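Field: sequence (string)
Field: structure_tokens (string)

Example rows 1 and 2, in order.
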Amino acid sequence: MTVMNMAQALNQALRYEMSRDERVVILGEDVGKRGGVFLITEGLYEEFGPERVIDTPLAEAGIIGVAAGMAMNGLRPVAEIQFADFIFGGFDQIVSNVAKMRYRTGGQFGVPMVIRAPFGGGVKGGQFHSQSPEAYFIHTAGLKVVTPSTPSDAKGLLISSIRDEDPVIFFEPKRIYRTVKEDVPDGDYTVPLGKARVAREGADVSIITYAATVHDSLSAAEKAKYEGIDVEVLDLRTLLPYDKDAISATVRKTGRVVIVHEAPKICGFGAEIAAFLAERELLSLEAPVIRATGYDSPFPFVHENLYLPNERRILEAVRKVASF
């Protein structure tokens, strides 16, 4: 075990997989000598060379298209999109080609690739460096969508994603790259895709969340404890496929649910979770499902702290659902 933050854990995961499997290559803007805008690939260029750590032009469609071709021809590319907001430049490549290739070719071709993208707010990035676009990709059959909330999960989920036979969109919550530290297993360590974890046990209310808002939810849960409300926090970790059994288990336990994410409320991933609960767990619910999310507006620069579902807003939602 080594104490590290999320940025270090991701770097370790990439280094380990590149050492273990020569098919693993990295490509993206400034990933080489610069080590990426957040330094996630720092040191890899010097260790593995320019043929495996490839600086690309500023062209997201090109990055993703080249990575797809690599994957179809036997490599295991990890493509970095410098900010998730810029992934839309390669959106057509992802949803029309990468996601559909296995189905389209009757299984003759797979696209085992990972697209890493820092996402979410909290770093004063304004409209074009703070968005949470995960719902677009969760809606696309053929993809897997993953987002960690802790350093150990970041390492384990990224290694699992690189080894997966399907294309994975790997969203990294950038505001906690260096603010959360913990013991991370050394060497070969994986976390299975599609499995949630209970980040905090509780009996009265369930918060279902993922990525950076896991930590906001844990803070709100601690505050709720002093008001006599025992909150369970479920960290989804993988959004597609998501862990339906874990969601059912926590709801059957508490009967009350708050869903938290940074993305806007309308058609956000929380809407899918709420619909799932209505279809499968209606009789387990003792109160309406409440969502604490970003607002249905462009991401603001000056009012970032008002936009994000912070501890205060989450606690208000917990109180409301607990008192129903």
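Row 2 begins here:
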Amino acid sequence: MKKSLFAVAAMTAVAGAAQAQSSVTVYGILDMGYSGSNQRLVTAAGQIVKTTTSAFTQSQEQTSRLGFKGTEDLGGGASAFFTVEIGLTPMATNASGSGTTKDAFQNTSQNGGSAIDNRQSFVGLKKNGIGQFAFGRQYTPIFNAGAASDASQYANVAGNVIYQGSAVGTASDSGMGAASVNGAFTNRANSALTAQSDSFAGFRVSGMYAMANQNQTMNPYGAQGAANTNTSAGGATNWNGWGVGADYTWNKLFATVAYQSFNTQYTENVGYSSNYLNLGSGASAGQPISGGVLWGQTALQDKQTYAAATYDFGILKAYAQWVGRKVTNNAGAASTLGETVNRTAQQIGVRSYITPTIEAWASAGNGKYKGAPLSATVTAPNVNFVGYQLGGNYYLSKRTNLYAIYGQTGSSSATPNTVGSGNTLSQYSLGMRHTF
């Protein structure tokens, strides 16, 4: 009898060890509620356009998502891991969504990478005491640094001058303006190799390299986007980048810095043929038009820098952030060669549990945006902007909370009739978030 018991115990232990060697976790966020906004936008012609929105919406505190992540113990302190995470649009008819948000300068998707809204997909190896590396679509060093040092934890509501997650109020904000989505930094990189060290004496470093697996020249006389045969199989087209990051933790202090650089290059013009119709108004509307150039040769260099620190005082946590972005055009016509767009912003914030079930945060910041000339007769816009955000959570349980968020931004310029100046935007959101 004792032998039988020992045998059963041994088999149970072996089975438990085998199961512990590999594990898969399903996780996600569903965030839905109500959002409204009031905005005042000044067009390039000086016209004032006022818009009010009111709608049941989604992903205001955090973007809804569904993910799968797993690890496998390879022995000797080594393990393999993977993550597959897709964005969800629970208010849309297609629950898996289709991401359309793009970086205004790089023309790369910052929201969804495919028809199923690919937020992240990567696989890698880890060695305890050394670090890890991974291949796939992943967050950039600045995105990771910001996620660890943003008071709102990347809420998708107006008012945050560092993380611009709101899609409201972007109509007249060219490029990296006050409210442009993804205007401050690049969130994700395709075809990326990342590496991260373990923490040593509080220090940790990371790096990223995103390869242009496909480089193609564009035919200016063929159909729109027609490519010559100078191609190679792969992922990202005519785009690559790299980045580094470092952070330090000492007691209740956390400090982080990150830098990343991206290049977008088309050696020929991107054009369209005469098969396309004039979609404008007038006598020629609906008539075939001659071939032309959508945009000329492109060689954009995009440099982004981030620095932040947090300190936990116990009753509240304080945040300080700075971000800078510089985009330079090194190709094309002489009139646009060397054009530079600059954006810098700084922000402070606090976050605290007022009671065990009530959490609140606040942030305020300002910045400056300097754009490229729109034409030979229009001066480059030089615009100042400010923003603030207030938010709170009421936790019904560990995984479910109600939230209320309000944010506001505004822009101004010392030069009259400057494009992007005079805009104001306020947005408020009420909703429920459930994590699983």
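free_text_note (row 2): The radius of gyration is 25 Å.
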